[in-house]
Amino acid sequence: MTGRASTAPGRRVKRALGQAWERLSQGESGSLPVVLGLVLLWAVFQGLNGNFFSPRNLSNLSVDIVGTGLIAVGIVFVLLIGEIDLSVGSVSALAAAVFAVLNVNEGLPEWLALVIAVLAGALIGALHGFFFARFGVPAFVVTLAGLLAWNGLTLYLLGQSGTINLDDQGLVAKLTSYYFHDIAAAYGLAALGAAVFFLAACRDRRRRKAAAMPYRPLREIAVRTGLIAAVAFAAAYVLNQFQGLPLALLIFVVLVAALDVLLRRTPYGRRVYALGGGVEAARRAGVRVAWVRVSVLTVSGTMAALGGLFLASRITSVGQPSTSGILVLNAIAAAVIGGTSLFGGHGRTWCAVLGMLVIQSISSGMALLSIQSALQFMITGGVLLAAVVLDSVSRRSQKSRGRA
To answer: What residue intervals traverse the membrane (predicted)?
Structure first.
């Protein structure tokens, strides 16, 4: 009896490993490659410089990912329908310029200038979507035109000086400079995240079970929750060793989680994924294709505006958009490296977070090692190419098995 009982857990582990290997062999690797790559990157940089895992560096890393990360989250929506938005760098710069002009030059209250700047980004995204959906102009061309036009408008708004300094004690500046020093804030966020994941997983399990669909056993849900809780509480511990929970990180996590729910738990999200799976099939299924196209580009413009404000907050100034090209490339790279497919129909908002962690970890590690930025671009490009190759191989493997 004892021997039989002792072998039961072993059989379950063997069965779970077998199922995991089967999913990997069918091209369903999920986020595993990028997580393993991130762990490898961190191990290498920590081995080369012991300050990489210091609380100060990791806290700064958690804030540095927010600006471009928000833009990358918007890019995820566009990639899910198999399109691309090249204008996000220019839109982010324009939104920051709109805020600076209204607040600093015109004396408008910060909160009102911020709202107008974000609405400007949303309006620009909707305009791109209108030309794309109504006239059939490829999104690539529409947003490329936007990249040029909004760059020019930004330069015009900034005027001769080309730079507007922000109030370093103002609302926007505090987006990236404010920290919750009470240790309960970071630990509370970690506990809340783990609890929300557990409750959502249990709810999904009940729904699938009631519909006679495959569902995860409670043991697996508990293990996943435990892993998430361990990572979250470790991160909270590290943040509390420096200045506490950054406001920027809190806003970022809340927005990413809310948009993830929008994509994965609502009819709207199902329409976005359906459109990414095929335009004609989505149209026959009753999806309003034009409306979805306009909406995803609106989301992209809105997130670009928010990201631009966070980037301006980090340096407390708004300058000429000379780096908007690098910004859009980093945002797209973050979404793709994190696991969003360039072919549409596959990805999550958390992909942007993972991809941004990879890119910013490379940047942070290179800075600690005093290595020139040229090598950083080369390494990031190599990681991006590897992610796209993996996506292509995964898609080909699924097609060969009739799963894509």
So the answer is: 31-49, 61-81, 111-132, 139-158, 178-200, 221-239, 245-263, 290-312, 324-343, 350-369, 375-393
